[in-house]
Design brief:
The protein has about 525 residues and is an all-beta fold. It contains no helices and 48 strands. This is Carboxypeptidase regulatory-like domain-containing protein.
Length: about 525
């Protein structure tokens, strides 16, 4: 119950505490300005209303000003268990006070930890577990010591528990989650609970470092890929740090900033993020700190936001093409996210590149787009290979604000050219039923034009009024590349010769030669 403070002139009666001394005699301390007349103690089983003993034989043993000490003459003997003490007291003025649960009395057998040890006493990122060992005993130390077998003990500030062996020994291991650790036994109806002494654990924090890779220039309105690496220092050696969160932020030139999406490092400590960079500025990456790892932060260099460009409808042709002939490289340079009126790069400077293997490139020619962003540039084809176009990011309509871009590649097969020269169908005109002789010379271009012997040339006839060519015969070229074949004249029409080409050679054909048959 609550006792109000007395008004001026009133007395004060309070029960301070109730204990049992080393001789097992009940002892009560009270506070009163007047002499105490009587003290009564009642002992209940803890947590219940069941009174198992009452003592009224208290006598004053000491008075020190307002403080009064009363003790029972005889020792208190209760069964093994836990008890709560309720005290009533009266002073000579008749004032009465009761205090429920003024003290606790535990008669259970004493327990304690012996040979307690913790190993290791220092933890870091690599070693966060410690092992607790010891023995749990009961009775009286040095006199009646008995092992506590088959009971459960657990760790404090460490998630570990185990059951003691027949000699009371135990070993348990767990991850530390505090500045110190201890072992504990929670007791039972006949044995007291106990905790071991706390053992301080040294927490070693490892340094960390971050790297960050960001392009110096990025496209406006397009997500940019950011990469980096998180490492920690272990025994003086930097090792990669997986599974950690890296927070990314964008910093404006006026020192304001905002967070971008966070990422986690992979098994190799690397991280990749696709972020939208809103303006020219810097990025930072930051790893969170803990007791095991220091916080780390890194900043990029200044990033310039420019207009993104692309090369669309890129093509190199014809395919295949004759050696020494022209390949026409064409396409259009555009700004995909630009405002209306500026989507096409006017007067954009570009290079035409060639690569035989698709890896090593060399510049062949330069050029500029027209007012609508188109380009169409002839280049000489000397061998099979890949073609591409590179835009520098500089143009007459937006100098310095465009990002460079590269087209896709287009492979062009280069073959030797062929041609049929001096083709003639004669005589003209010719009498019906007479012989028409068709002939000419097959030539090829390797390093220069020359006659080509031993090849088959196919001869075709197209009757007057028809659009279809009809195969008539095949002739083989002589050592001078010449071929000729005779046919019986039957009706008016045109004659043509054709070489069909091969693995390394393009087809070649003559023009048609019309013969009037009378």
């Amino acid at each position: 119950m609550c006792i109000p403070l007395p008004a001026s002139g009133e007395t004060l009666l309070r029960i301070t505490y109730a204990v049992v001394d080393t001789s097992q005699r009940p002892l009560v301390m009270l506070q009163s300005e007047r002499d105490i007349q009587k003290v009564v103690a009642r002992y209940r089983i803890a947590g219940t209303q069941e009174v198992v003993a009452t003592r009224e034989d208290f006598k004053s043993i000491q008075v020190n000003g307002q403080y009064h000490y009363w003790s029972s003459d005889s020792a208190l003997s209760l069964d093994l268990g836990q008890y709560e003490t309720d005290i009533e007291a009266w002073n000579v003025d008749g004032e009465h006070v009761t205090r429920i649960n003024a003290g606790k009395y535990d008669t259970r057998i004493r327990t304690w930890f012996a040979d307690f040890s913790v190993n290791p006493k220092s933890i870091d990122y690599d070693m966060q577990d410690v092992t607790l060992k010891g023995r749990l005993l009961s009775g009286t130390p040095g006199k009646d010591e008995r092992p506590m077998a088959g009971v459960q003990v657990h760790g404090l500030r460490i998630p570990a528990e185990t059951t003691t062996a027949a000699d009371g020994s135990f070993t348990m291991t767990g991850r530390v989650n505090g500045l110190d650790v201890a072992a504990a036994y929670d007791g039972d109806p006949t044995h007291r609970s106990v905790e071991s002494p706390d053992v301080d654990i040294e927490h070693v924090t490892q340094p960390t470092r971050l790297s960050l890779s960001v392009p110096a220039s990025v496209a406006k309105g397009v997500k940019t890929t950011v990469t980096g690496l998180l490492e920690r220092q272990r025994n003086g050696v930097w090792v990669r740090l997986p599974g950690e969160t890296v927070s990314i932020a964008f910093h404006y030139p006026d020192n304001t900033w905002n967070w971008l999406p966070s990422v986690k490092t992979d098994a190799q400590g690397r991280f990749t993020a696709a972020v939208m960079i809103p303006a020219s500025g810097m990025l930072s990456a930051e790893s969170g700190g803990s007791w095991a790892l220091q916080q780390s932060r890194v900043y990029s260099d200044m990033i310039t936001v420019k207009t993104g460009t692309a090369i669309s409808s890129f093509d190199a042709g014809p395919e295949p093409v004759g050696k020494g002939a022209n390949v026409t490289v064409k396409g259009r340079i555009v700004r995909p996210v630009a405002a209306a009126g500026s989507q096409y790069v006017k007067g954009g400077y570009f290079d035409v590149d060639f690569s035989a293997d698709g890896k090593s490139w060399s510049r062949v020619k330069s050029g500029r787009t027209n007012q609508d962003g188109y380009f169409s540039t002839p280049v000489t084809a000397e061998r099979d290979g890949h073609w591409r176009v590179r835009y520098f990011g500089s143009s007459t309509d937006q100098v310095g604000d465009d990002l460079p871009s590269v087209s896709g590649t287009d492979y062009v097969d280069v073959k030797y050219r062929t041609a049929i020269s001096s083709f003639n169908a004669a005589p003209e005109p010719v009498r019906k039923g007479a012989t028409i002789t068709v002939g000419g010379t097959l030539k090829r271009y390797v390093s220069s034009w020359g006659s080509w012997s031993g090849q088959w040339v196919y001869l075709y006839f197209q009757p007057r009024g028809s659009s279809a060519w009809t195969y008539m015969a095949v002739a083989k070229t002589d050592r001078y590349g010449k071929f000729r074949k005779g046919f019986k004249a039957s009706r008016d029409g045109s004659w043509m010769a054709k070489y069909k080409g091969g693995t390394s050679y393009l087809p070649g054909s003559s023009a048609g030669d019309y013969v009037d048959v009378r």
